[in-house]
TrEMBL record:
<feature type="domain" description="Sigma-54 factor interaction">
    <location>
        <begin position="196"/>
        <end position="424"/>
    </location>
</feature>
<keyword id="KW-0547">Nucleotide-binding</keyword>
<keyword id="KW-0238">DNA-binding</keyword>
<dbReference type="InterPro" id="IPR058031">
    <property type="entry name" value="AAA_lid_NorR"/>
</dbReference>
<dbReference type="InterPro" id="IPR002197">
    <property type="entry name" value="HTH_Fis"/>
</dbReference>
<dbReference type="InterPro" id="IPR027417">
    <property type="entry name" value="P-loop_NTPase"/>
</dbReference>
<keyword id="KW-0010">Activator</keyword>
<dbReference type="InterPro" id="IPR003018">
    <property type="entry name" value="GAF"/>
</dbReference>
<dbReference type="InterPro" id="IPR003593">
    <property type="entry name" value="AAA+_ATPase"/>
</dbReference>
<keyword id="KW-0067">ATP-binding</keyword>
<dbReference type="GO" id="GO:0005524">
    <property type="term" value="F:ATP binding"/>
</dbReference>
<dbReference type="InterPro" id="IPR025662">
    <property type="entry name" value="Sigma_54_int_dom_ATP-bd_1"/>
</dbReference>
<dbReference type="GO" id="GO:0043565">
    <property type="term" value="F:sequence-specific DNA binding"/>
</dbReference>
<dbReference type="Pfam" id="PF13185">
    <property type="entry name" value="GAF_2"/>
</dbReference>
<dbReference type="GO" id="GO:0006355">
    <property type="term" value="P:regulation of DNA-templated transcription"/>
</dbReference>
<protein>
    <submittedName>
        <fullName>Transcriptional regulator, NifA subfamily, Fis Family</fullName>
    </submittedName>
</protein>
<dbReference type="InterPro" id="IPR025943">
    <property type="entry name" value="Sigma_54_int_dom_ATP-bd_2"/>
</dbReference>
Length: 502
């Protein structure tokens, strides 16, 4: 008798092991396991709940013999109810009487049961970490509860392994897709010198330099205010180089939190930290053969700078939690809108890294310092945007003139954005009337102001200051201002200044 029971348990395990050898998503694996429990062990109701870090709830990811509503209702907080407690403590639980208070009946399943089911809940672990709970409702007739618990524990372990496997598959798929995306992007978009608009001396110089530096493997440092075209230039350099069919990988050093940045850049080995169930390639490895573009390099945390220096200098990546180093073949282009030299002086950027990056500096001046580029850029963007929005929009000469005067603190990006808005809103011709109000405010600022008005305003302010400083003693205030008492009195009246009695 006993022999045949063990045989049935073994059949379940055998069947589940077969499931493991196939590559399935975790959800599919769970469903297979629960189905196996039904067909080999007569478990009519069971589910797997995983902890979701975002909602901080355990939720059912796979179930057998539960209705949609029961699955949806099955949400447990950490430590709440039997499922929550098993998750929190890792202690397996067997309950033969489901009418007791600690059984929350969150799913509502109890109402449908026959009444003599035993509830078994065991933790699902990945390494040290508990990720969820396997819950089984079973009427024990032939088998012992003890055996049921043993089987559930084994299945909990196996589910943990399946989870780990599926994570690795997902990770690999994601990496593969990212690589594919980078490559197709490289093929679909055309970046060449014609894409860089500008006839100013500054831009012409830059283009000459780009032609020379692009085919080499030299590190390039692009500086310039935000929106001046640093990212565009970096791509052009890549696509003019022999690396053009290999990945161009951008890392925005300011957009990623410091703790994540290290893993993103250099990758990690399995087990490097809690949650690192698989190893991961860093951006440098992903870019192998291609170009890494380090955007906002000025925001690179000091703590990561030595590691970056090592990559640039020795072309070697040290993975997090890894023993060995990985050789990579990458070209580095960096960009920043900050003054790296100043950051070095202030101790915020390593000097050795600065010199490594600054081998070939390219500076793009702000648009307001190369105003002759503005009409060309306007033409270019109107052409591109008209095509994109399937419209024919032109611009009046007066509007172009005003745009050449405007200071464009957001540089080419601001110009492009404004034109895009106008193209969407307008039919026909853009005129000065279409320019936004902040535009006019800014243009007024640069205009010469009326001298009498300026003098009067300053006079009034200085008199008020002097009166406040002297506690409204007019004779002393007059002295400070270099006026006679009569002259001060005259002005106090003229400006309607109130004399406070203190
Ligand atoms: N000289 C240029 N010719 C054509 N487009 C440009 C030029 N400079 C910048 N742009 C465009 O302006 C926008 C902002 O440029 P971007 O390279 O992102 O600036 P940055 O990286 O310096 O902030 C992009 O859409 C870019 O294509
Ligand atoms: Mg940029």
């Amino acid at each position: 008798m006993r022999h045949s029971i063990e045989g049935r348990s073994l059949s379940v395990i055998n069947q589940v092991a077969k499931t493991m050898s196939r590559t399935l998503s975790f959800k599919e694996s769970v469903e297979e396991v629960l189905k196996t429990l039904y067909s080999f062990w007569d478990v009519k109701h069971s589910y797997v709940a995983l902890y979701d870090k975002q909602s901080r709830l355990l939720r059912i990811v796979g179930a057998f013999g539960l209705t949609e509503e029961e699955i949806e209702r099955g949400l447990f907080k950490k430590g709440e109810g039997i499922v929550g407690k098993v998750y929190k403590s890792g202690v397996p639980t067997v309950l033969s009487d489901l009418s007791i208070a600690s059984y929350l009946n969150r799913t509502g399943l109890r109402n449908r049961l026959e009444g003599d089911e035993t509830f078994i809940a065991v933790p699902i672990r990945v390494g040290e970490e508990i990720i969820g709970v396997l819950a089984i409702f079973k009427r024990f007739e032939k088998e012992s509860v003890e055996e049921g618990l043993q089987l559930a524990l084994i299945l909990g372990t196996m589910l943990g392994m399946m989870y780990k496997l599926s994570q690795r598959v997902d990770e690999e798929r994601r990496e593969w897709e990212e690589e594919k995306r980078m490559l197709t992007e490289a093929l679909s978009e055309r970046y060449n010198l014609e894409g860089i608009i500008g006839r100013s001396t500054a831009m012409r110089n830059i283009m000459e330099l780009v032609k020379k530096v692009a085919p080499t493997d030299i590190t390039v440092l692009i500086t310039g205010e935000s929106g001046t075209g640093k990212s565009l230039l970096a791509k052009v350099i890549h696509f003019l180089s022999r690396r053009k069919d290999k990945p161009f990988v951008t890392i925005n050093c300011s957009a990623i939190p410091e703790t994540l940045l290290e893993a993103e850049l250099f990758g990690y080995e399995k087990g490097a930290f809690t949650g690192a169930y698989t190893s991961k390639k860093g951006k440098f490895e992903l870019a192998d053969g291609g170009t890494v573009f380090l955007d906002e390099i000025g925001d690179m945390p000091l703590s990561l700078q030595p590691k970056l220096l090592r990559v640039i200098q020795d072309k070697e990546v040290e993975k997090l939690g890894g023993e060995r180093t990985v050789k990579v073949d990458v070209r580095v282009i960096a960009a920043t809108n900050r003054d790296l030299g100043q950051l070095v002086k202030n101790g915020l950027f390593r000097e050795d890294l600065y010199y490594r990056l600054n081998v070939f500096p390219l500076h793009i001046p702000p648009l307001r310092e190369r105003r002759e580029d503005i009409p060309l850029l306007i033409d270019h963007f109107l052409r591109v945007l008209s095509a994109r929005y399937n419209k024919k929009v032109s611009i009046s000469p007066r509007a172009v003139e005003l745009m050449m005067e405007y200071p464009w603190y957001g540089n080419v990006r601001e110009l492009e954005n404004l034109l895009e808005r106008l193209v969407i809103l307008k039919e026909g011709t853009i005129t000065e009337k279409d320019l936004p109000s902040y535009f006019w405010v800014e243009l007024q600022k640069d205009k010469p102001r009326s001298i009498p008005e300026l003098v009067q305003n300053t006079e009034r302010e200085e008199i008020l200051k002097a009166l406040q400083m002297t506690g409204y003693v007019k004779s002393r205030a007059a002295k400070l201002l270099g006026l006679t008492l009569r002259q001060l009195d005259y002005r106090i009246k003229k400006y309607g200044i109130e004399i406070k009695k203190i």
